[in-house]
Amino acid sequence: MWQKYDFKQAYKNIVNSNIKLYQMNILVCISKTPDTTSKISFKSGDTEYNSDGVTFIMNPYDEWYALVRAIELTEQNGGNVTVLNVGPASNDIIIRKALAIGGSDAVRIDTEASDAYTVASNIAAYAKTKSFDLIFLGKETIDYNGSEVGAMVAELLDLPYVSYASALEISGSTSTVTRDIEGGVEVCQVDGPFVLSAAKGMAEQRIPNMKGIMMAKNKPLEVIAPIGDAAKVSTVQFVLPPAKSGVKLIDPENMDELVRLLHEEAKVI
Question: Could you point out which of 39, 50, 75, 264 has its C-alpha 20 to 30 Å from the C-alpha of 185?
Fold first, then answer.
């Protein structure tokens, strides 16, 4: 005998059961960096980066991988993506771009961070006041390449930390993380909440569409005073690497000259 199937009730049963969709509250930390084509020079006695005429962008690892994957997770299961930046008002333009891509809301901690610890301590202090299931960052910024902030945030919050992740899948409160290691791939499982830094492969870049750009104008962007610790590192001097020398071509018959150059001029990197 045919029996009418109540799809609405079935959905409610799934939502209320132990296999219900896990709606995540995610924090994505973003940075502002110079465009990769920017000219590098310094001022104030080589202690400050010269930003005159430089175009700034959202750090690609934060944008393409951490932010987009966080948005994908909430699109699949519901939830909220809060975008966080530590920096001055000039950073609002990249924050609005993150909201246009799909972030739910944003916070800017109003301080000019001078080292990685300042950034990390402000992120951690803010995160302590909320209940985030996952804190996402890019694996590093393209200007300093320090890859320090994620580990510091995890330590300050006493949370598990997985770095350089290239894939993330979530089932309930357990996450399966894949990351490339020397000579292979490592797959690990971690229970939330935790901190994760994202590398290439985590997601595909998204371009904000007109609807997203218009909606971003009305999404909340909260500005709060600095709540972290003071910097522990000061910059003594920036130094540009030596200019690359031209290639020297040696006649294949002149092996003595090749040996001399290898002994006297070649440098091991």
Answer: 75
